Amino acid sequence: KDGFCRRIFAAAFEVNSTNAYHRMNILVIGARAAGLKAACRAKRLLPDADVLVLEEGQYISYASCGLPYFLSADVEEFRQLTDTPYGVQRDPDYFAAAKDVQVLTGVRAERIDTSRKTVICRQVASGKPSKYAYDHLILATGASPIVPDLKGSDLSGVYTFTRPKDAIELRQAASSNQLERVAIIGAGYIGCELCEAFKALWGIETVLFENEPQVLPEMLDPEVARVVELELERQGIESHLSTQVS
């Protein structure tokens, strides 16, 4: 993000050198960690610029790595994932007051018109169209989960566990005894953390599937991975390694 900010900072000096005042518009799509950090950094470097952040969802600036621990109730309330270390919630009002950065939630960016430097959007709730101009545009939408091409992956009860909505719905289902058996495809960090959340805390029967011959592939050596596998076994997790789900 600093490299980008240096480029727009240099662009600001070029604009000012023409003696024609122009209030720069910096538009950011995505209001998680990367988007908001880039927006705040740009505002610090260019305090006269207008910085606007668009977010499709309702939650912003949350710690995605904390979602499994909200599911397990190690984190009691979801808002704790959006709080500052001093307990202040990082919501749009916070960024407006503390950072002078405007954040709009519930706005889905659908198309970028580079010729007019405009982003065409739609309000998620009402479907009302809107558009926003920019001088510089930052795309910070994050990664998308890899969903295997499996029949039934679009059915109810199938989650990718990348959004707050997933964590909130699953925790409500677990705490109200609506879940009897959970299947997890993928033994990466999130998969192993979900095994602990479902089995260790909620006592839900949990089955783990992994295509590779070990858990945490490309993260741990096989010898160390075996230690994790034994711990999963001790917790009562049914693991199927070297197994391709069809």
Can you summarize this structure?
The chain contains seven helices and ten strands. The protein is an alpha/beta fold. Strand 8, helix 6 and strand 9 form a beta-alpha-beta unit.
Throw out a few tags for this protein.
three-stranded antiparallel β-sheet, elongated, 10 strands, alpha/beta, 246 residues, 7 helices
Largest sheet: 4 strands, parallel
Helix percentage: 25-40%
Ends distance:
40 Å
Order of helices and strands: HEHEHHEEEEEHEHEHE
Order of strands, main sheet, comes to: 3-2-1-7
Count, helices: 7
Mean pLDDT: 92
Structural class: alpha/beta
Please provide a written account of the structure:
The chain is 32% helix and 20% strand. It has helices at residues 2-16, 33-45, 67-71, 92-99, 164-175, 189-201, 222-234; strands spanning 25-29, 50-55, 102-105, 107-113, 118-123, 129-133, 136-139, 181-185, 205-209, 238-240. α1 runs parallel beside α2. The protein is elongated, with a radius of gyration of 22 Å.
Question: What's the arrangement of secondary structure elements?
Answer:
Layout: H1 2-16, E1 25-29, H2 33-45, E2 50-55, H3 67-71, H4 92-99, E3 102-105, E4 107-113, E5 118-123, E6 129-133, E7 136-139, H5 164-175, E8 181-185, H6 189-201, E9 205-209, H7 222-234, E10 238-240
Parallel strand pairs: 1-2, 1-7, 2-3, 8-9, 9-10
Antiparallel strand pairs: 4-5, 5-6
